[in-house]
């Protein structure tokens, strides 16, 4: 297994303004033809590489030519918006350059999920849900807060200025504490409530301190599940429009990061990590008919604002940079469940893009990867993927997931079957840890079919 490379597809993108209107039908965007993938199949890589001399040597010996390297916002600017930790910046730049000089392809994670402590004190930094609660995880508002977005934009510009970004294969952007798209997840308020909508700060509701270009709530003050607003009955259509505003706010935030990188001089691809399968069309119908009172929320995707059926086409039509969706559910727990069905529902199929939004298609039984991949294909977006990692590591795996060793064995088949441009194994340090029971040779064997 040698000469493994990633070929990213370059598409021209419309810069038409992304518009969210109150109480109107869904924004219609033309769907592009599904993106083709490299004829040689996926490129094989690893997540969270250190790009040390030892890492580079081990990866090259195994034929792994693609790595993701993570930057850390809190290490870059630990004490203030202007005081760079130059030792950290120089070390990161040296390691990224070392990987590139060794012929490795590099995707950079910006690490905006690791905000410095001083960011938490900025106006509007605290996320607020409909009950007035804030995330117990300490997540900050990188979606609505103008002050936080400004600090984040400054950090992104510093990345472009300090690192060899013209040589990168991609830069990852996200909004959540996992570095993926999404608001905080179920019960992250720490109060026992399974569903929170994180758009109830003054910025999102009243427009006070709202990030530039972001629309405020189409129904200021309305609480999901409430039957009236300003003395008027709330319809299912109004509830759906509110949810579309909520989920598209994430796309505004992603577009903002992509535009900042592009404006700073980065012309390459933007990778958008996307967890799970998101809200299904039938879920949204049930949820909005119940005025978003919690009905129809299978896995917390409503509160997290994940609706790929709409979001991926919005990204494709409104982000000037090349967008590559990173599907983070390769061989997750839903794949385990889906492959036990008769017939199995875990593997992608050629007609998934056209059938996945039909009411008669039982997409609830599909694996997360299969459904999310179909939405990327519908939108004409290239896709890469990654597995959740060791179930005990709290990186996406659960007690129902395959073991890491089994994920290593099965993931290459899913990556090929779902026409992914690349697969990133989570994580490099797993392959270096003798106690994990897996090493690079196991990964090589899985990719080559020797296992």
UniProtKB/TrEMBL annotation:
Residues 1-38 form the signal peptide. Residues 383-408 are annotated as: Disordered. The keyword Cytoplasm does not apply. It comes from the Bacteria. InterPro entries: GH. Keywords: Signal. It comes from Actinomycetospora aurantiaca. This is Glycoside hydrolase family 42 N-terminal domain-containing protein.
């Amino acid at each position: 297994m040698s000469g493994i490379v990633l070929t990213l597809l370059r598409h021209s993108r419309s810069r038409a303004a992304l518009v969210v209107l109150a109480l109107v039908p869904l924004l219609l965007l033309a769907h592009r033809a599904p993106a083709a993938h490299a004829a040689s199949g996926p490129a094989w890589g690893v997540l969270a590489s250190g790009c040390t001399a030892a890492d580079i040597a081990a990866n090259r010996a195994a034929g792994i030519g693609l790595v993701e390297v993570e930057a850390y916002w809190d290490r870059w600017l630990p004490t203030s918006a202007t005081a760079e930790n130059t030792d950290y910046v120089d070390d990161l730049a040296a390691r990224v350059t070392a990987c590139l000089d060794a012929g490795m392809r590099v995707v950079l994670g910006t690490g905006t999920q690791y905000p410095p402590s001083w960011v938490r004190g900025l106006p509007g930094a605290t996320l607020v849900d409909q009950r007035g609660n804030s995330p117990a995880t300490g997540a900050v508002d990188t979606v609505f807060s103008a002050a936080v977005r400004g600090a984040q934009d400054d950090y992104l510009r510093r990345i472009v200025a300090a690192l060899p970004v013209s040589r990168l294969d991609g830069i990852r952007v996200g909004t959540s504490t996992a570095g993926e798209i999404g608001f905080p997840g179920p019960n992250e308020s720490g109060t026992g409530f399974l569903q929170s909508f994180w758009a109830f700060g003054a910025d999102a509701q009243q427009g006070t301190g709202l990030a530039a270009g972001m629309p405020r709530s189409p129904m200021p003050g309305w609480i999901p599940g409430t039957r009236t607003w300003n003395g008027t009955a709330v319809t299912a259509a109004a509830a759906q429009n509110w949810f579309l505003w909520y989920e598209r706010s994430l796309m505004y935030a992603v577009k903002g990061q992509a535009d900042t990188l592009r404006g700073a001089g980065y012309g390459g691809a933007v990778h958008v990590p996307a967890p799970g399968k998101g809200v299904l069309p039938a879920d949204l119908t049930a949820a909005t008919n119940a005025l978003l009172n919690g009905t129809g929320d299978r896995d917390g995707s409503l509160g997290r604002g994940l609706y790929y059926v709409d979001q991926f086409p919005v990204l494709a039509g409104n982000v000037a940079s090349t967008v590559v969706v990173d599907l983070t559910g390769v061989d997750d727990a839903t794949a385990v469940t889906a492959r036990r069905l008769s017939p199995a529902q875990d593997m992608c199929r050629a007609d998934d893009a056209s059938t996945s939004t039909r009411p008669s298609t039982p997409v609830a039984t599909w694996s997360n990867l299969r459904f999310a991949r179909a939405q990327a294909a519908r939108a004409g977006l290239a896709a890469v993927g990654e597995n959740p990692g060791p179930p005990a590591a709290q990186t996406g795996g659960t007690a129902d997931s395959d073991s890491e060793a089994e994920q290593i064995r099965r993931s290459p088949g899913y990556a090929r079957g779902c026409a992914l441009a690349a697969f990133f194994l989570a994580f490099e340090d797993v392959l270096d840890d003798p106690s994990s029971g897996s090493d690079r040779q196991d990964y090589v064997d899985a990719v080559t079919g020797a296992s």
